[in-house]
Structures are given as structure tokens and as C-alpha cells.
Amino acid sequence: MNMDVPIKNLGGNFIMFLPMGIYLPYFFSRLNKISMFSISMVMVLFVIEVMQLVMRRGSFDIDDFILNMCGALIGFAMWKTKTVQKMNLKFLVK
Length: 94
What we know:
Blueprint: H1 4-16, H2 18-27, H3 34-54, H4 62-80, H5 82-93
Helix pairs in contact: 1-4, 2-4, 3-4
């Protein structure tokens, strides 16, 4: 079996939404809490999956949903680290 396709699928779905975990709380201060961030990401991912189903450009795949959510949560965890917060403050001061 060619393992290239599953690895690209897993990695792509995981990495694709990692930046969302950083950019959403940066631009929308209401999303700095994990609960609000999680709720908003679930809604965004649900809309994306339904659009794929309706437009017949993919399928409603729970694996994609879970991997995208995990990627976003890891990005959110990265956003919450003190190192990134210090970098953010330096960026805003300039």
C-alpha cells in the first residue's frame, strides 16, 4: 500500500488549521478563551464540511473535522505560550 497518500492527508488536515489557532485570537480578542475559541472553530469547521458536501467537492468526513480541530487547538496552545505573547507585544509596540 502506498503510504504517501494517508500521510499527506493526515499532515495536511492537521497543519492546515494550525494558523487559525494563532490568528483568530490575535484578531478577535473575544476568542482568547479556550471555550469561545473551540465553539467558533467547531462552527467554522462544520460550515466548511457542509459546504464540501453540498457543492460535491468532497465529503463530510469526521476524520478531517477532528484533525482540523486538533491542529487549531495546537495553534491556540502555541498562541498562549509566553514566548509568543512576548513576540506579539514587541510586534504591537513597533
